UniProtKB/TrEMBL annotation:
Superkingdom classification of source: Eukaryota
Keywords for the protein's UniProt record, in alphabetical order: Aspartyl esterase, Cell wall, Hydrolase, Secreted, Signal
Name of the protein: Pectinesterase
Keyword Transcription attributed: no
Pathway listed: Glycan metabolism; pectin degradation; 2-dehydro-3-deoxy-D-gluconate from pectin: step 1/5
GO biological process, any: cell wall modification
Compartments (UniProt record): Secreted, Cell wall
Organism field: Senna tora
Reactions catalysed: [(1->4)-alpha-D-galacturonosyl methyl ester](n) + n H2O = [(1->4)-alpha-D-galacturonosyl](n) + n methanol + n H(+)
Gene3D superfamilies: Single-stranded right-handed beta-helix, Pectin lyase-like (2.160.20.10)
Length: 332
């Protein structure tokens, strides 16, 4: 931090000055709180200092919301014994708030919703335990996490779901050494995010309704400064004919670089989502990938094998302006 004082956001300098406050969550009573929600509720609105919520191993059946008025929160799972934050909400399911029935909708079905900035998560399992969509039940999509805050980082986390596992909603986000599991559109939204390193695995699970789809970036204009970049990742799974991405909206931007792709990937690689006109507005790129699923022969005509200069912006931490905010995971 001393070296980077001239480059990081002034808010980060203030928040990281001095030792962070640590609150502990343990279901056996060995912490200040027995639930993650109680710990989040203890954080004051307008918080300006880093607060680490240390979570002991166990399964936490909670629907957790971190409001935008609570920045600089870190959820840190017990090393070697990752806690599982889970809930079984889906888009159709009704819940209750103050005894009033409500319908979640897709993005609010998430087990963990983060709307605040400068969020960090490490050593966590974040899952949605709702059953796999079968193509018959309406509103069966179920989100594990929605990240809507800016400048968030995830280290060594596992995200488990089926359709719509991660709503990578908006803002700069960094995922390192994570496993993300799903069936259809299991990374979707309008974020600008970097998914990095060989220990980041994209696991495409065989769906009841067949196929598979990793990324559904929601770009709506070729001038938008958003997109998903997957660098040194691994695409695995037991699905058949999975696509790396689809044109959910008119102008998605998705790039895979230095990534190992298994037989799970369909030779076409990408889908225009039954909108042939979107072939003119998508940005689907690949760069120096390997594995049987990376063969450029047979790729959809609207995809691009990137040159060195074209790939360079997507394979640097500068893609998410990381020098202004990104810090390594804490040691607790």
């Amino acid at each position: 931090m001393a070296v980077r004082k001239t480059s990081v956001d002034k808010e980060v300098l203030g928040a990281e000055e001095g030792p962070p406050k640590i609150v502990r969550v343990s279901q056996n009573g060995n912490g200040q709180f027995k639930s993650i929600t109680e710990a989040i509720n203890s954080i004051p609105h307008g918080n300006t200092k880093r607060i680490i919520v240390y979570i002991a191993g166990g399964t936490y059946n909670e629907k957790v919301m971190i409001n935008r008025t609570k920045p600089f929160v870190t959820l840190f799972g017990e090393p070697g014994n990752k806690p599982n934050l889970t809930y079984n909400g889906n888009a159709k399911r009704f819940g209750t708030v103050d005894s009033t029935a409500l319908q979640y909708g897709t993005v609010d079905s998430a087990s963990l919703i983060v709307e605040s900035d400068y969020f960090v998560a490490a050593n966590l399992i974040i899952s949605n335990s709702a059953p796999m969509p079968d193509g018959k039940r309406k509103g069966a999509q179920a989100v594990a996490m929605r990240i809507s805050g800016d400048k968030a980082a995830f280290y060594g986390c596992t995200f488990l779901g089926f359709q719509d596992t991660i709503c990578d909603d908006r803002g700069y986000h960094f995922f390192k050494d994570c496993t993300i599991q799903g069936t259809v559109d299991f990374i979707f939204g309008s974020g600008k995010s970097l998914y990095l390193m060989q220990n980041t695995r994209l696991n495409v699970v065989e769906s009841i309704i067949g196929g598979g789809m990793i990324a559904a970036h929601a770009g709506k204009s070729v001038t938008e400064d958003t997109g998903y970049s997957f660098v040194q990742c691994e695409v695995i799974g037991n699905a058949k004919g999975a696509f790396l991405g689809r044109a959910w909206m008119t102008s998605p931007k998705v790039v895979y670089a230095y990534t190992t792709m298994g037989t799970v990937v369909d030779p076409l690689g990408w889908s225009h989502n039954n909108h042939p006109e979107r072939a003119n507005t998508v940005y689907f790129g690949e760069y120096k990938n390997k594995g049987v699923g990376s063969d450029a022969k047979g790729r959809a005509h609207f995809t691009k094998q990137l040159s060195d200069s074209e790939a360079r912006p997507f394979i640097s931490l500068a893609y998410i302006q990381a020098s202004k905010w990104l810090l390594p995971p804490p040691k607790v």
